[in-house]
Amino acid sequence: MANQARVVSIQDNINRVTRSIQYPRKPDGKPVYTSELFGENVFHLQQIAKALPKPAYASFLKQMRGRQALDKGTADAIAHAVRIWAMDRGATHFTHWFQPQTGSTAEKHDAFLSLKSSFSANGEEVTAIDAFSGTQLLQAEPDASSFPSGGMRTTFEARGYTVWDTTSPMFIQEGPHGTSVLYIPSVFISYNGDALDEKTVLLRSTAQIAKSATELLNLIDPVPVGAQPRTNHVFTTLGTEQEYFLVDRSLYALRPDLKHTGRTLVGNLPPKHQQMDDHYFGRIPSKVLATMSETELELFRLGVPVKTRHNEVAPQQFELAPIFEEASLAVDHNLLTMDVLSKVAHKNKLKVLYHEKPFKGVNGSGKHCNWSMSTDRGENLLDPTVKPETNYRFLLVLVAVLHAVQQHGGLLRTSIASSSNEHRLGACEAPPMIVSVFLGEHLTEVLNSIEESRPIKNFSVPEIQTIKLGGTALDVKVASLPAISRDLTDRNRTSPFAFTGNKFEFRAVGSKQSPAFPVTILNAAVASALQDVTEALRTQMGDKPYPSDADKVAVIKQFIASTKAVRFEGDGYSDAWIEEAEKRGLPNIKTSPEAFEQLLNPVHSDMLTKLGIFTQSELQSRHLILQERYSKDLLVEATTLSTLLASQILPAAFEYRGSLAQTVQVLKTIEGEEASPELTALQALTPVVKDLQAAIAQLDDVVHKMHHVGDDPVEEAKFACAHVLPAMNHARAVADKLEVLTADKYYPIPHYSELLWF
């Protein structure tokens, strides 16, 4: 039977005992508190401080802050200390862990083992030693031509370098057979110093936004001549809400489309999916909870501050969210989280799906990036405080963010564009492709009142409401319940960029992608906008030593007026918003190839190169990489779909059709008349089988044509978007009809109803 493998997998899933591990306990048997094991596998600054003389440690801190280079003596001392620390914890190898433009991380393991030769009258004697030098710590040399480079590296120009990022701590991860591996977070650059990764440009953007924000803050908050400025550094904070699906691994193995593309290319929704709204925040299945708990244990040890876990809206969809951290470290931790979750799920016979839309018809997965800025004194620059209308620092930063989105919304759209995220955006609680900003009723009123020079409306808490139950009045102000505080804003889940109390939530980022590139672009746009606000303040204040409150208000009013078009409080899914956005001049970039072109738009490219976040060659390289990845993604999907349909779905339909025809013939022989029920089924099946054959031929023809478009990645991406994707959608529509008509025992791959169930 074609469905035998499915039946066996489902039976195994039902009978499988949930994996259990021993949570760490103290010698007296009491459990170890989370705070006690947090970061135990991380080589913190405290360990470096213990290993280095005070002058060397002070030198290292200056290097971390970008004030001087790291000398060889200090590097050797740190390398020796981290080797001893790691080997005491079972490490046999080390790796430079970096983020090439593949959407994931990369690593190459080298052993600490080395050989030392000595020569005597008896000849050479070789001794095995453990060694790790400062040079090995600082850099390594992978082949740059083997990673996406957009033409910046070729096979005959292959050299590239990974360089230790001292701002992100080293850590160890479990290896095979009770060993472990030392991980060294690194950047990845070419022989000529060009950025080939996601982290280098992210670090450049964080440095630039720190410079721009610090300049603005010290202008509006001056100190006496000769005194230290109140703000020496500003950093961006990030919290990434990671959504994902979990499916049974044995069923996953029976779906070639899931294995090769990360999403189902055929399949119909089961009768019950998410329409009952009963999965969101529901009871977490035991197998999933065991996976979550084991993942969290590993992440706590790695210093990743995971905080929240829960069911998401779609069946078998879940979320894991951390506490806010400095942005570049938060990106490292998000990628580490994805890696650890995948490994732990594998141990639990499950498979994590990070694709933005693995199942058609239910909610997709995002990576909501909660972004803000903080000073070196711990002040959140996006905290509106009790009276935002008179908090001019907050308002100046707020209008700078609005200005950034107004000027560079198209570039933000680029940062979240991919073939996979295209399936998610614009429906099922995912934001639309038009980038706008939601502020909420209160802040909108604050900005409107300032622009119109009038008093702000009263936003006191509304009167307590009552609810009638069974003919009695129940006052919701129950004495036994604590008082609650209401946020300044409601939540608009159709907004791609929403203010959520003291931060902005960039909701459009896809679950599969690294948050590095979207955050880099956001940092860059805001850094540029902060410079514009600062320049406007200097112009407004004239020859005065510092701006007055009236100067600040004048500049705030100027930017409120100029950024009005990008503010939208309504339903982002409505057709009316599409029409309104067009009137406002907001870009509605519907496809990824179109979005990638924004990288080369002078409005955006000039900003990025002026700030020093990208060089022109790096921009051109990234543009080609994005276009090429898009076309390759669709080509892999199209080829996988064609193979799946031709080798599994269609033969199953042939077999079922033959069985029906044989039954019709047998019954006609026995009964002397047509077997009408079976004949009706056969007549319904036959034209769909023919349609699927035609759809496969059409898809194969389009794929063949794509191979002959040429070597231009831009044209290939455009062709894939315009021709391959529609051909795939048509073939799927026909195949999904066939799934309904084919008897279950003949259907060769797991249905949605089996994948979306534990």
Automatic annotation (TrEMBL):
Top-rank taxon of the source lineage equals Eukaryota
State the name under which the record lists this protein: Glutamine synthetase/guanido kinase
**Start and end residues of each GS catalytic domain:** 198-649
- Report the Pfam families cross-referenced here: Gln-synt_C (PF00120), Gln-synt_C-ter (PF18318), GSIII_N (PF12437)
**What family does the entry list?**
Belongs to the glutamine synthetase family.
PANTHER family of this UniProt entry? GLUTAMINE SYNTHETASE (PTHR42974), TYPE-3 GLUTAMINE SYNTHETASE (PTHR42974:SF1)
**What does the record list as GO biological process?**
glutamine biosynthetic process
Q: Where is the GS beta-grasp domain?
A: 92-193
Q: Which SUPFAM superfamilies would you find in this protein's record?
A: Glutamine synthetase/guanido kinase
Single Gene Ontology MF annotation? kinase activity
Source lineage: Eukaryota, Fungi, Fungi incertae sedis, Mucoromycota, Mortierellomycotina
Respond yes or no to whether keyword Oxidoreductase is given for this record.
Answer: no
PROSITE patterns membership: GLNA_ATP, GS_BETA_GRASP, GS_CATALYTIC
Q: Report keywords, A-Z.
A: Kinase, Transferase
